[in-house]
Task: inverse folding
């Protein structure tokens, strides 16, 4: 894999040449500090820019063109990472050897045409498209609420209070009502003007040729100098219990842990291993062992580490009559993390993490992530990471566990159906 | 070892048949670091009635899935723990017609493959383990019972099928699994978990010769009795449905609608097409008329009836094709009527067909970029056609609008079942 970065003023162009894949991928990443009231707007914008544009004024016309380009695929997504918003637009297409040479130029032109030539009339997004997308955003918000697991997580996070971590990634119906075709277009212009922009090309392509085409199409000229801080500092809270009722069969439990005052090394390495042993290692971890294997309380239980929020979040679903027992077992698992971790558990965690890092070398999106976060100085390069994980000690994990505190235990109580 | 070239992709699948009856399908790819192994049992939730060793078995629902859960117990250790030491991801799933054990990893190839085979050929369950697993499966079923989409499809299949076992949940219901006894599970294991009723698929970074040698050597440690394969007792599925329409109220904001057309394969007998050709035609006709580039999709979107796209999928039983359409809408009745109306006016122009052929042949190449997708595609071929299909590109290119029109003519007079999950009043 050959990597080359070109700093081009308005954007950085990252070229990753590899013959691993039969397809190639180009991604444009917009990145900026989070303003919580913009989450819904950003989700809306991502969707409207991938639906149609001036050249392809309906989604059908766009999709027919993509099918003609050997079923290339164009998509966008927005994620909230700590205190920042990352929006990416990607196009995947067959390598020219399986299609024809014009596919490269055709796909690059389409990608930038979609981003720079939106379906706008004078100074507002096309009203019809706007209505379709508004309904779609509303649906995706409602979808999250229909899913007890996601709803319990959304509700639990709200109790974190006045912090970006309390907001979910999908937006809210309340914010949606304030979005108009005009202010959305203003927000689009703001994103193009103010966001840092990185363009990644991955594939077995003639990179000189690709660079020439991108230079001609990617008309992002504004140089940015502001600082981006992705990290949220969530202060330690007193343990609090919250609950809501539901008509579900199961009770969904969410337990939010604060990681207090971690060093960069702990945040990048030790916390990952800690989380893996606690609840992330595939099917073999403390929570899984206690709740599922030893006590048959649940089908699934896991924890995930939100590095940029300084949080670990545990989720599970149990029979309503077993809620207290499950919470007790979660607390017991956390207690074990203080002084009862075996060498085997540490080895499993390291094996799992190393395996996942190796896996990332075969996945286009994760290849991009590895370079993107390294470039932001938020991650070490992959070889350093592979080496450093191996060196994490048990004492370092115990030291980190002293910095872990429960802040919120939330239950979405079920059982009213029975 | 047989080598089968997949036309139009520059890829080859290696096939080995072991003396003990196990077939191994391999697609090596040294450009990636990972490998993906699946050990598949031709035994799924619909196999509840069968004859084995002269005895008739009529099992409670959910045994295949229950057995899948239990297979991770080993006499001396927990299989999850062993795979954890290797840094691998291990899992399993059960569907209507297959139970599949899967390992995904990028190191310790020999250990992963050996242990997976050892695990699946070492049945170890006692009353205590069976009882422990019952609690876990009960929670799994309850988790799905809270899910609106699961309810939508369960109601759809219950009404679409009269006798076919697809009308029941793969896991069985909470009441079903209460009836399952250790002996039922042991009997099912003995009947179905035999090399000649199973197949192994390996994709990704590995050496095929080494894979065959490891598999043979590990399997030589097990004595496989030469017995007849279990004989499935199939229920005749009549050309009938239980109900045309069923709705359920749940905590959803928008109605979820599913329509299923029950299409007898007999309708197409005179066209003299193979099962695969027929399936490809039906799939393409459905994509042209209801897919993301269809006129009705655009119309329903622009009228605010749907806001994304019409979901569609084509399923197959022994005697029927099942064409399913799904959507979320505030106007379920209007949506249903528009689908019915479009079904009565299907078309497939030359231009549409050639564009969809381009899409399908491109997708075939995309498949090989993902070691999981290609593994699943081989699994589909084996379960549905008993062999790896190597000329699908050629078949696609032979499809014509003339034949598509003849198929459309025969698509009249099918049975339709509709399931709706509505918001609560």
Result:
């Amino acid at each position: 894999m050959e990597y080359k970065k070109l700093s081009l003023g308005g954007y950085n162009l990252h070229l990753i040449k590899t013959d691993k894949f039969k397809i190639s991928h180009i991604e444009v990443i917009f990145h900026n500090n989070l303003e919580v009231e913009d989450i819904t707007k950003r989700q809306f914008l991502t969707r409207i820019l991938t639906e149609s544009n001036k050249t392809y004024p309906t989604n059908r016309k766009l999709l027919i063109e993509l099918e003609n380009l050997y079923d290339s695929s164009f998509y966008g997504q927005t994620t909230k990472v700590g205190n920042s918003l990352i929006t990416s637009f990607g196009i995947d297409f067959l390598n020219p050897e399986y299609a024809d040479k014009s596919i490269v130029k055709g796909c690059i032109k389409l990608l930038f045409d979609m981003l720079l030539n939106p379906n706008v009339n004078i100074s507002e997004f096309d009203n019809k498209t706007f209505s379709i997308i508004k309904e779609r955003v509303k649906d995706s918000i409602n979808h999250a609420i229909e899913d007890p697991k996601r709803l319990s997580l959304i509700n639990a996070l709200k109790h974190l209070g006045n912090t970006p971590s309390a907001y979910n990634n999908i937006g809210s119906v309340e914010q949606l009502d304030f979005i108009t075709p005009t202010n959305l277009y203003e927000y689009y212009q703001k994103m193009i003007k103010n966001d840092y922009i990185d363009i990644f090309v991955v594939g077995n392509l003639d990179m000189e040729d690709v660079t020439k085409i991108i230079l001609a199409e990617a008309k992002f000229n504004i140089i940015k100098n502001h600082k981006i801080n992705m990290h949220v500092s969530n202060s330690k809270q007193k343990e609090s219990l919250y609950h809501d009722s539901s008509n579900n069969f199961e009770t969904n439990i969410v337990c939010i842990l604060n990681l207090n005052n971690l060093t960069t090394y702990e945040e990048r390495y030790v916390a990952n291993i800690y989380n893996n042993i606690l609840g992330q290692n595939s099917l073999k971890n403390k929570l899984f062992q206690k709740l599922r294997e030893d006590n048959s309380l649940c089908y699934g239980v896991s924890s995930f580490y939100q590095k940029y929020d300084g949080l670990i979040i545990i989720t599970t679903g149990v029979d309503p009559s077993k809620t207290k027992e499950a919470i007790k077992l979660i607390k017991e698992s956390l207690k074990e993390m203080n002084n009862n971790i075996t060498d085997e558990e540490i080895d499993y965690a390291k094996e799992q993490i190393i395996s996942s890092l190796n896996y990332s070398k075969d996945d286009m999106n994760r290849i991009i992530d590895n370079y993107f976060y390294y470039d932001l100085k938020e991650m070490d390069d992959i070889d350093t990471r592979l080496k450093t994980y191996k060196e994490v000690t048990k004492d370092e994990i115990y030291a980190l566990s002293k910095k872990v505190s429960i802040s919120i235990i939330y239950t979405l109580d079920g059982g009213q159906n029975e | 070892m047989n080598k089968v070239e997949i036309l139009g992709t520059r890829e080859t699948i290696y096939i080995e048949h072991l003396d003990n009856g196990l077939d191994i399908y391999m697609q090596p790819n040294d450009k990636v670091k990972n490998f993906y192994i699946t050990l598949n049992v031709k035994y799924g939730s619909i196999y509840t009635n069968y004859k084995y060793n002269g005895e008739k078995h009529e099992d409670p629902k959910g045994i295949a899935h229950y057995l899948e859960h239990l297979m991770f117990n080993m006499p001396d250790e927990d299989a999850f723990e062993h795979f954890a030491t290797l840094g691998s991801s291990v899992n399993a799933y059960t569907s209507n017609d297959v139970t599949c054990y899967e390992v995904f990893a990028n190191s310790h190839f020999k250990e992963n493959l050996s242990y997976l085979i050892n695990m699946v050929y070492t049945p170890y369950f006692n009353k205590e383990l069976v009882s422990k697993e019952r609690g876990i499966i009960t929670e799994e079923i309850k988790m799905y019972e809270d899910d609106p989409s699961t309810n939508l499809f369960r109601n759809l299949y219950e009404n679409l099928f009269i006798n076919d076992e697809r009308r029941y949940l793969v896991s069985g219901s909470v009441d079903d699994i209460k009836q399952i006894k250790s002996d039922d599970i042991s009997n099912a294991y003995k009947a179905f978990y035999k090399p000649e009723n199973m197949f192994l698929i390996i994709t990704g970074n590995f050496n095929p010769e080494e894979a065959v040698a490891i598999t043979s050597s590990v399997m030589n440690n097990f004595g496989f009795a030469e017995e007849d394969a279990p004989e499935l007792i199939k229920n005749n599925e009549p050309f009938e449905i239980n109900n045309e329409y069923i709705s359920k109220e749940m905590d959803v904001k928008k109605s979820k609608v599913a329509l299923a057309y029950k299409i007898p394969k007999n309708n197409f007998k005179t066209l003299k097409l193979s099962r695969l050709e027929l399936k490809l035609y039906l799939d393409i006709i459905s994509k042209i008329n209801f897919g993301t580039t269809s006129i009705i999709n655009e119309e329903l979107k622009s009228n605010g009836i749907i806001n994304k796209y019409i979901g569609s999928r084509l399923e197959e039983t022994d005697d029927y094709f099942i064409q399913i359409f799904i959507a979320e809408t505030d106007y379920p009745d209007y949506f249903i009527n528009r689908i019915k109306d479009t079904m009565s006016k299907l078309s497939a122009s030359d231009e549409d067909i050639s564009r969809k052929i381009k899409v399908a042949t491109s997708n075939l190449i995309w498949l090989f970029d993902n070691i999981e997708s290609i593994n699943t595609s081989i699994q589909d071929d084996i379960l549905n056609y008993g062999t790896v299909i190597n000329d699908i590109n050629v078949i696609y290119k032979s499809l014509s609008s003339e034949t598509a029109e003849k198929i459309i003519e025969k698509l009249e007079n099918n049975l339709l079942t509709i399931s709706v999950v509505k918001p609560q009043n």
User: Anything to note?
Assistant: Chain B has 15 helices and 15 strands. The mean pLDDT of chain B is 94. The longest helix of chain B spans residues 127-145. The longest strand of chain B covers residues 255-264.
